[in-house]
Each structure stands twice: as structure tokens, then as C-alpha cells.
């Protein structure tokens, strides 16, 4: 059975591209804002969530904070997707608790690598996994 990923982004092209990169290996669910994402996450219980940071209705930070308070999904790892992926922003997002950051514009390798590392991170239930930032490993 494929692991399930919830992709949240208000841009349909971004959702389509993320789905294109991931659909072979994962079951994909999509939502167009944080509110819809929260509802779907609590219903579908995905293994991983990817959320855009800047969205109407409920942005990615508010979504993250609400998800961490939810009994059903508070332990689900969440990756941030953002066009503001400068080093300081990446560190800030990781410090908030995101398990990875995927920069925009999306690059196939960065998406696949970050998601794979986040899935590994989730399997290490001992809490000693390392966050990932979408950058190529040196």
C-alpha cells in the first residue's frame, strides 16, 4: 500500500506539478487552502503533509499551528513549500517544527529528495531524525 501525502497549495499549477513528481510512489490528496487541508488531513490521516506558506483563507503557518493542536494529526510531519526559501527563512521554518522545506520554483529532484527524507524522518519515531531543506546533499 502506498503512503499517503496531502498537498496543500492555492496554485493549481503547483499542485499539478507536485502531484506529477510524486504520484508514482505515493497516494496523493490535494487541498487549495489550509482550512480545506485541515479538514482533509483529519479525515484522511496522511503519512505526510506538504503545505504552501502563503495562501488565502488559512496560510501554511496557521495550518501548521492548528495541525499541531489536532489530536488526529499533531504527529504528522509537515513540509513547507515556499518561494521565500532564503537561508534565514528555511531556518525559521525548521525551527517552527516543519520537517523540511521545498523551495519554489519547484525542482523535481528537490521535491523527491525532501519528501523521501521526510518519510524516513517519520519512520524514526524516536525523534532523532534530522529536518531537511530541499537542498542537494553536499
Brief sketch in words of this structure:
With 138 residues, the protein is α/β, with parallel strands linked by helices. 42% of the residues lie in helices and 19% in strands.
Q: Rg to the nearest angstrom?
A: 13 Å
Low-confidence stretches: 125-132
Number of strands: 5
Query: Mean of residue pLDDT?
Result: 88
End-to-end Cα distance, whole Å, is 32 Å
Element string (H = helix, E = strand): EHEHEHEHEH
CATH superfamily: Response regulator
Structure, described:
The structure is a single chain. By secondary structure, this protein is of the alpha/beta class. It has five helices and five strands; from the N terminus they run βαβαβαβαβα. Strands 2-1-3-4-5 form a five-stranded parallel sheet, with helices on both faces. The longest helix is centred in the C-terminal third of the chain and has 16 residues, at 108-123. The protein starts with a strand and ends in a 15-residue tail after the last helix.
Amino acid at each position: 500500500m502506498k503512503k499517503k501525502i496531502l498537498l496543500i497549495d492555492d496554485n493549481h499549477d503547483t499542485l499539478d506539478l507536485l502531484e506529477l513528481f510524486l504520484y508514482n510512489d505515493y497516494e496523493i490528496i490535494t487541498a487549495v487552502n489550509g482550512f480545506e487541508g485541515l479538514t482533509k488531513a483529519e479525515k484522511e490521516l496522511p503519512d505526510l503533509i506538504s503545505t504552501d506558506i502563503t495562501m488565502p483563507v488559512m496560510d501554511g503557518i496557521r495550518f501548521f499551528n492548528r495541525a499541531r493542536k489536532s489530536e488526529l494529526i499533531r504527529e504528522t510531519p509537515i513540509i513547507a513549500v515556499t518561494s521565500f526559501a532564503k537561508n534565514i527563512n528555511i531556518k525559521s521554518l525548521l525551527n517552527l517544527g516543519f520537517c523540511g522545506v521545498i523551495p519554489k520554483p519547484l525542482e523535481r529532484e528537490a521535491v523527491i529528495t525532501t519528501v523521501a527524507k521526510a518519510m524516513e524522518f517519520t519512520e524514526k519515531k524516536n525523534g532523532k531524525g534530522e529536518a531537511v531543506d530541499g537542498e542537494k546533499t553536499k
